[in-house]
Amino acid sequence: MNSFWDGRTALVTGAGGFTGRHLATELKRRGAKVRAFIREGSSSDFESAIEIFSGDLLSDDDCHRAMQGMDTIFHVAAVFRRVSTTTEELRRIHVNATEHLLRAAKEAGARRFVHTSTIGVHGGLKVDRADEQGEFSPSDDYQLTKLEGEQLVSRLAPELGVPYSIIRPCAIYGPGDTRFLKFIKPISRGMFVMVGPGEVHGHFVYIDDLVEGFLLAGEKEEACGETFIIGGMRSHSLNEFARTVADICDVRRSGIRVPVWPVYAASVVCEKICKLIGVEPPLHPRRVAFFTKHRSFSIAKARRLLGYEPKTDLETGMRRLILWFRQQGYMHTILVLVGM
Hints:
By secondary structure, the chain is of the alpha/beta class.
């Protein structure tokens, strides 16, 4: 059966990262001619069939050269959050670079520009199963500048006549990424500390499902001018998440709980001290927010307009991730007591 992507050309920015790499690889598997835009000085081990473009997203010239001959653009690049990262650094990539790419897409006559935002633009939710129309409440500079980036796309792309779609991924996980290691490792040792009651929900998306959401947004005419939340089948309480991981690891949950306020206070102090001495904090307010901010979203719009249907439930996805952690030797390294 022929794929929509057979013979098409696709540019993937941020292709050196977890999501971008998976997306570029799947596009190639489906027959697309893929150009992977990676940061200057970055190394890449893509197969030879994927063209590597090493450049600077803040350079008009690099963006125009990267865009030449490209049919579809998947803008996935983002700044990794570090304590030393300034708001202006975030804004340069999330907003300024996005404008460079949009204008280059206009000149190249691209048929679709798929932009990556984040569900973080909604902040902590006051309702269950919020949709794309939910209020914005970014809680840090990363989320704020991602919101500014998607608002730029929704304003500028129509002015330029560039067909676009915006994707807001839920919390991404899967083999090849270590973000959930700080949650999973202590559970596997029976020493996880739950901050607060554990009843807030998180909404997660397995990498294969997210990639499918990107591809559908790049294919479907119904996606033009629309924003989509791409997540797993449903959200899960942190207690349910911890219980699932413990069952997979065949261990008893520790049952240890601590109140939020002293951990949050410690995180604020920790972050300030670490900023002064120039090191990444082992505990910071964003990590504590994982235990306090409710995130449960509706994927009904993506189902209705894109035909999106996640195939990987939480238990299956976590089994694959934990197996990969074990294969990589991550489950035998130093214990971290506080989760995500």
